[in-house]
Amino acid sequence: MNPAWIAWGAALLPLLAVHTAYWLSADAGYVPWCLPYLDGCTSISRAARHGLPNLLFKGLMLPYAAWLAATWALVFVWLRLLRPQAPRRTCTVLILGIVAAIFLVLYATFLGAEGPAYQWLRRYGITVYFSFTVLAQMFVSALLWPLATVPRALRRAMACLCALLLLLGLASLPLQHYAHDADAAIDALEWTYALLMIAFFPLVALAWQRTGFRLRGEIVRKAASR
Length: 226
Description:
Blueprint: H1 4-28, H2 36-39, H3 44-47, H4 51-82, H5 87-110, H6 116-144, H7 152-178, H8 182-198, H9 200-210, H10 217-224
Helix pairs in contact: 1-4, 1-9, 4-5, 4-10, 5-6, 6-7, 7-8, 7-9
């Protein structure tokens, strides 16, 4: 089986969930109409907090968390085949990815619930999901960097994407204190950050195709034995 469509789904499913939830929320008057990537008129959480948008967001993102975990499991198998001499780093990728998926469940489950405890759980969930996902992507990029079997353009694209995500994460710190409209700036950065984060998975899909990665029982057993 060609697993590339699984990696593509890891990008397209959240893209569909977030933008459909925003469109429905803006249509219902929960949030204003704008270009959230530029205007920062709402956060992703506010766009999916109420009514039908909340139900749709949860209905897509909770199953997506399992899809994401499966994607990271396949990344682990692939890396074990390509870098058998780096078992600890490949296992780190798997652990970071699975933990990120678990905390995405925590975030989506309590999105829309009222109360300070639920707000803390949402914030904790989304923070761990974002940070652990990007850390896993950085490990993947570092593991692939010396491999000539992966096209140089893909390796550079992954490295540049990870560097940009790191810079955006660091940029959020001064924005919170010095931006003219800090809330709007942070919201716009959050939309951009989320988009760039999921853009990593199509690069993985292309790398799988270029390295001839296929999902077969003997391949999984071979990777697990290394």
